[in-house]
Amino acid sequence: MQTLTLTRPDDFHLHVRDGKVMESVIMASARQFARAIIMPNLTPPVVTVSQALDYRQRIMSCLPGDSSFNPLMTLYLTEETSVEEIQQARESGMVYAVKYYPAGATTNSENGVRSLQRVYPVLEALEEKKLLLLVHGEVTDPAVDIFDREQVFIETVLAPLLERFKGLRIVLEHISTRHAADFVMQGPETLAATITPQHMLLNRNALFVGGLRPHHYCLPILKAEEHRLAIVKAATSGHPRFFLGTDSAPHARARKESDCGCAGIYSAFNAIELYAGIFEQAGKLDRLEAFASHYGADFYGLPRNQETITLTREDWQIPATLPFVEDEIIPLGAGEVCHWILQ
Predict the structure, then answer these.
(1) Superfamily holding 11-307
(2) pLDDT digit string, tens, across residues 262-280
(3) d(CA 238, CA 300)
(4) 3-state percent breakdown (helix, strand, coil) of the chain, nearest 5
């Protein structure tokens, strides 16, 4: 196969930051995706509908007038989030979900939830108003090994949550373990998962081959090869509750290569081309369109996109670095050969 035409895909987990950083990265996503679920963990976080709509306007102002890219906004869940805010979110028509970060779990999550019981009324409102709950699925207990935090979260937090809120639609973000893949596969129709290119391409050896590799550091952290294979199997399975979410998270090279490097991998530069290579290698290229363009929209209750994109099978080298504000950024797969190119 030399060309591949797909319904224009959506990215159901994207960080575009704000200000000059956003100006540097937003067009990479807009050229590939029709829509993207925009993460709210700015500093300060996006906790109200008014802030979300202002943020959306800032995103739109970075796009050319003929762009059809549609940012789908989210709110950052805190223990102060009110039921009234959820009602306003529903009425806005532009806020689609609320993001649950366990406090301290990842970048800019200091304002996250410490006691889930304190936000039960908000979760009941989400269930009633049919807005989604997006979950960063890791516990933050320092006694739990970092490689086990997703599995423990599923067992101690997510499973009871699903039992208590049976009508609440939940997306377990950026799954990274066999346990998560199996749990979603066997779970209720109200549970889905996003899958990143890095968790399909890399295992934890990639953090250390030839020295410490900070540009492969993300959260959830990369896992052992058995887990990578399970994630690839889930994504390419044709199961309708696994879909594309890049979790592309831009950080300047200097911030990644510091004494306390930031978590996050920048994949937005050529995400759909990376996914195509992964699906081709798995022998499941015929299932890419559903994963990238159909299943996420279906789970969110959105219409499928009508436009298409075309990929051509052509080898090209991913740049080692890209311009990024006054620094540079290292994309996923920097310096390596990519086998598909978006026309």
Answers:
(1) Metal-dependent hydrolases (3.20.20.140)
(2) 999 999 999 999 999 999 9
(3) 17
(4) 40, 20, 40
pLDDT of residue 245: 99
- In angstroms, rounded to a whole number, what is the distance separating the alpha carbons of residues 30 and 271? 11
Parallel, antiparallel or unpaired: strands 70-76 and 95-100:
parallel
Burial of 339 (0-12, 13-18, 19+ CB in 10 A): middle
- Give the pLDDT confidence score for residue 276 in this predicted structure: 98
Pair type for strands 308-317 and 322-324: unpaired
Angle 241-140-166 (CA atoms, 0-180°, nearest 5)? 35
If one counts every other C-beta atom within 10 angstroms of the C-beta of residue 286, the result is: 12
Cα separation, 70 vs 187, in Å, equals 30
Q: Which of 145, 247, 286, 327 is catalytic?
A: 247
Q: How many CB atoms lie within 10 A of CB 327?
A: 14
pTM for this structure?
A: 0.97
Active-site annotation holds for 148: no
- H-type helices in 3-68, by residue range? 19-30, 49-61
